[in-house]
Amino acid sequence: MKARKRWLYFVLIMLNIPLGLATRWAPQYFPSLIRTYGGDVFSATCIFFGFRFLYPVKSLLQVSLISYLVCIAIELQQLYQAEWAVKLRNTPLGILLGHGFLWSDCVCYLVGTMIAAALGFVLERLLHLER
């Protein structure tokens, strides 16, 4: 059962990554709301899917809390503005670390986590993957 659940979340991660990157690299193809907030929502869903992949037997609530706290930690680290940290954020890794703290990002992470948890709940039930 764990292996099947991991496959589900692996597929969801592989579908999620290009969608999230597309909102950053080709925003002209998305409505304004998705252009502005979609990347952060997709980031949160990907983090949720990643933690669910790693911990398939933990409850959805536990995975949701862990993934949301990781999102908030990533956002809070953006408040640290040491020269080396700013240089690191300007590398390709910077897409994972972000560039500036925004309260709206915290809301996007919450929305993304809730969407991912709801999608996980539904898919696990439909595919009979619940514990």
UniProtKB/TrEMBL annotation:
Residue ranges of coiled coil: none
Alphabetically ordered keywords of this record: Membrane, Transmembrane, Transmembrane helix
Alphabetical list of InterPro entries matching this protein: DUF2809
Stored Pfam families: DUF2809 (PF10990)
Protein origin, superkingdom: Bacteria
Transmembrane segments: 7-25, 37-55, 60-80, 100-123
Protein name, UniProt field: DUF2809 domain-containing protein
Provenance organism: Chitinophaga eiseniae
